[in-house]
Write a structure and sequence with these properties.
Number of strands: 5
Strand order of the largest sheet: 3-2-5
Largest sheet: 3 strands, antiparallel
Number of domains: 1
Structural class: mainly alpha
Strand content: 5-15%
Order of helices and strands: HEHEEHHEHHEHH
Helix content: 40-55%
């Protein structure tokens, strides 16, 4: 299920590992790679956000909006601001609170395992190394015309991580059904 609180908690996990402040582009890449790894392991994303291809590679649409302060729902804005200050001039966001495992109530143990694995594999990279990595290693990414974006279908991600086409289509339909339910119950 997609929630602003879950995106904030996923982001907090990575910001805390980075020392409390994290580059926005790096964070966006880590969030995308987390959903991708969750799809590899469990057949579903953690965030249930929508993936898009942009100039700097794949990213999660609503997560990027939150990071950029584009949050039309005031209650969602409050959930984000509980964790982070506004973005800085040098393209970073800063974690504004301490937290423990109990505070990450939107993150399951399985999700936490994915986040830990993504950090272990990619946390040492800077944002430009992650851009290069996603361009070269995420076959679902197709560079869009400069300055635009294209949706990345869940089935494309699933196939790219090794799920057979038929099963990828089924899982993609289940993910879409969950997003429709989220939309109904979030209003």
């Amino acid at each position: 299920m997609f929630t602003a609180r879950k995106i904030a908690q996923m982001s907090a996990f990575f910001a805390e590992r980075q020392g409390g402040t994290i580059n926005i582009l790096k964070l966006v890449k880590l969030l995308y790679l987390s959903d991708r790894e969750s799809m590899t392991r469990h057949g579903i994303p953690i965030s249930f956000d929508y993936a898009y291809a942009m100039d700097n590679g794949p990213m999660l649409s609503q997560a990027l909006d939150f990071i950029n302060g584009i949050i039309p729902d005031k209650s969602d804005m409050a959930k984000w601001e509980e964790w982070f200050s506004s973005r800085t001039e040098n393209h970073q966001i800063k974690l504004i609170r301490d937290f423990g495992r109990d505070d990450l109530d939107e993150i399951s143990e399985a999700d936490l395992g994915v986040l830990e694995a993504v950090w272990k594999s990619f946390g040492h990279m800077d944002q430009w190394e992650l851009v290069d990595y996603t361009h070269n290693n995420c076959s679902e990414y197709k560079k869009p015309p400069k300055g635009s974006r294209n949706a990345i279908n869940d089935a494309e991600i699933l196939e790219a991580v090794g799920v057979p086409k038929e099963h990828a289509t089924e899982l993609s339909e289940e993910i879409q059904a969950q997003r429709r339910l989220d939309a109904i119950f979030s209003n």
